[in-house]
Amino acid sequence: MALVLTVLFFAVGCIVGTASASYITENSVVPNFISDIITSLNAGNNDNSSFLSILLDVSFYPLIVFAMGFFVFGFAMIPPLAAVRGYIYSFSVALLIRYYGISGVIPAFILFGIKSIVFIPCFVVLAVQAFSSSMKLTSTVVSRGASWTPPYGKRFVLRSVLCFIALALFALVLFLLSDKVFNAAIYLLQKT
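Now predict its structure.
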């Protein structure tokens, strides 16, 4: 059930994000915003170049989902969080493609798709186990501790550690390649 809800809400967020981007007009502030970001990145004002900021960017939502596993009724926040993350990803990608047309596909993949390769599987694994753990905690509290069995076992710890190691290693790779990745995306966007 946790896997289905997480993936379903993520997918709904993606659909809504993509649809929302279609309502952005050429006269809105968004094209200026995109141009300002490109100008800032081109000028070397990229604040995301520190390893800590990249690590936080990659692991922010997984950390929140992981923390929800330790809260009673935390399971109720996981599907909406998945929807928000799906919305942000798809809106960003759809906006680049809407603004730049077909030539925005490759930069969108460079800026968002590469990060998704590791982020989405780790996010889903952490969300599913946090959902299950929070449900167990909630049922224990609601039943007043009648059958207390800790929801956090070796598998929980192992999966969590593996996911966060994968996210940290991926953040390191992004950090080492960030200048090249951003420069490639900017170059492709400026060619249009």
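The two ends are 45 Å apart (CA to CA).
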